[in-house]
Structures are given as structure tokens and as C-alpha cells.
Amino acid sequence: MESQKKILKVTIDSKIAGNKLIDVLKDDFELSNKMIKKFDKEKKIFVNSKNISLKSKLKENETVSVEIDCGINNIDPEKLLLCVIYEDDDLLIVDKPKNMVVHPTKNVLSGTLANAISNHQKINNQNYKIRFVNRLDMDTTGLLIIAKNSYSHQQLAKQMDEGILEKIYIVVVNGHLDSKEGVIEDSIDLNDDGIKRELSTFGKISKTKYKVIEEFNNVSVLEIKLLTGRTHQIRVHLSSFGNNIIGDTLYGKTADLIERQALHSHILRFIHPITKENMEIRSKLPDDMENLIKNLKN
Fold first, then answer.
1. Among the options 90, 95, 137, 139, which is catalytic?
2. Does residue 76 carry a catalytic annotation?
3. Are residues 95 and 142 in the same domain?
4. Which of 122, 149, 219, 274, by CA, is between 20 and 30 Å from 114?
5. Where is the Pseudouridine synthase RsuA/RluA-like domain (predicted)?
6. Entry pTM
């Protein structure tokens, strides 16, 4: 199957007439310099269906269009359970289950979320490169965004960098925190073992905002908002407070009531890359975390 294509269009009005094509691509399409160079080289930028110089000044009522190749998916499809929360021509948002790796690796070649998405494409006669906007650890459940084209991916990545895309988690931890809400700000770096992360003055600045939702029996349920997106950030920051996530064997210990870390990607808020609509997508707490909380209260 051929790759799908996404066409972006802008009609020049009196306000931007006289501007150079390159400026319209930057300001109105919000394309990065890298993307502009790529699309210009590939002859994917058109004014009234013709390729012209990026320095050309545009006239009122002219139509500028950019043809974006959505890429080719080369991941094998597998008939795996896939919970689709939202889908349109530009985005796919899924609810990832526990015990599932997001993307094939050297050690995990199949059974991943990407294999399930590839099968979803096959069933729906789609073909696009699978671009994950956010990532989740194997044992973390919840919401993941997949961009169906490079433009949507770039726009959402930019929103993450600027703090516009909000990622909110629910987590169950051991102990009570001194403050009911606050921000944990500590640098994180890779441990010498090449797997774990740890606090380090040589690491990348990392910020985690937390709020206590509920406390009982030396356990706390927290709402977490990531202000940066480092690997294992929530797990490292909370364990550094002495409040390791229940069931997190890497930064804490095993738990009798749950078989994985009690961490769930609960809410995503962002601006749709194409429609510019304010989006809020929610995922309910999975059964194992609901049962964990219920049992810990008793």
C-alpha cells in the first residue's frame, strides 16, 4: 500500500498579502526551518499548484499548499487488543494496557503496542509511519498519542516543549508526603547500570508537580503533572522522597496487591495540531489500581 498524504492549505488574505512564501510557511503553517527545507527540496510546496521560490511575495487570494507524506509503516501487524480512545485523520489516541512494550526493541520483537496499531491500520486500510508523541514504560497504563504525519508530530512535540501539552497521571505511593501539593525539582541522569535513573547534579533538570488526592493507612494517592518528560521521572522523583510507587520493583519493591507499578496516564490536554481545538482526553483508572486502592483501605 502507498503512503497516505496530508495536504495543508492556506488562502492568502489582505493581512498577509505581500509576505514572502517562507514567512507564511513559518508563521501561518508553523513549519520548522528543517521541515521547510525538506519540503522545498522535495517540491512539496505549491502556490496555486506551482512550485515557486521561497522568497517570492504572495498575492491576495493565492492558495499555498504543502503536501506531507505520512510515511510508510514497516512494523508487522499482530492481532492484539487495542483500546482506541480517539481517532481522526491526524491523530490516534489509545489506552495502553499493562505488560505491553510500546515499540519493538532488540529484546522485544513482537507483542508491542506498535504491532497492535499496525494491525489497526491493516483493518482500516490505513498506512502511516507510527510516531509516538509520548511514551510509557511497559508496566505503566494509560493514554498515548500517535501522530499520523510528521507535521502533527512536530506540532505536538513543540507543545510538549512549551508546556502546552499537559500529561497528568494517577499514582499510588507508600507513605504520606510532608506537603499536600508541590513541585519536585531535581536533575536526573542514567545510573551506572544503564537501566535505572538517579538524581545527579550532572543530569537534566526535571520537574514533577504533585497533589495529594487521598491518604489512608500509610498510603497516598497522588495526581501528577509532568512539567518535563525524562525517562522514569515520576518513579525517580517519588522514590527520592521516600514515597516509592507501590509495585515498582526497580525503584522500590514487589507488592502483594498489584503485579506492576501503580502508575496510570490519566489525562492529556493539548491543542489539536490541525483544527486548533482544545482537546482533553481521559482514561479511567484500570481495574488493578482500583482494586489496589480498595484493598489498601480495608
1. 137
2. no
3. yes
4. 274
5. 90-240
6. 0.90
